[in-house]
Amino acid sequence: PLKTFILLSIILTLIALIITYAAVELATSIHPATMITPYVDVENVTVSGEGLIVKLIVINATGNLTITGGYASILETGQSAPLSVTGPLTLEARYPLLPQYVNLSAIGIKGLVSGTFYGDPMYIGFFLVAPISVKISISVSRVEYGNCTLNVFISYSTPVPIVINELSNVTLVDDTQSSYVFYVIGSIPESIYLSPGVNYTDITLDLLGLTQGARVFTCSLINGHTYTLYLPINVTYIYPTANVTDHLTLYNVFMAGG
Questions:
Q1: pLDDT for residue 29 is more than 70
Q2: Which residues contact 162 (CB under 8 A, 6 or more apart)?
């Protein structure tokens, strides 16, 4: 009986050690699962003559996830638009262009993306801040002057139509001699339409024929001299919902014959 008891004790001890070892090995091989949560981010925000375009993308989309739509609102303007699906994980919203966008460097976007996850309804809320760049540029690219006639070539890039309404106090200075070539007294009415896109237009002024009056000191340029043209203009930006008028002073430094 004693030998039997000792033998059974040894067997039970070995079994207990084996069970303990297996439990430890199993515990060390199990790791907690990491929950991957999908979220929405901004792909880009662009501005064109059509309006403001916001493109979004769903990040960390795993499993059987299908995007069906949603909406997005612009905090600064209160505009809201439906999100249309443009790809498996990308969406797009379009808004009419407003005057406020010209002065904004970034916009706040909030909304909701809807879809399904393994057949069940799913919603992803978002609140994002995205940079926005509305670039409207107008500049003098070339100046020609001869026989008391000024030709100004204006380059521009704009997502909205622009109208040049008026020129005022146009002045051409000979920087080399520190003297006037001419200056215009008062304003010259204009109605020059600049269509959306990247393009150029030209303005011709017959200085001797201006009814507004001009002081002309010379009717030609001297090769090798440096000149500066000052061209103050009034412009109107034509937005779909409103017009905004602004005053710009364009100038161009150039060398005659250069």
A1: no
A2: 136, 138, 156, 193, 194, 235, 236, 237, 238
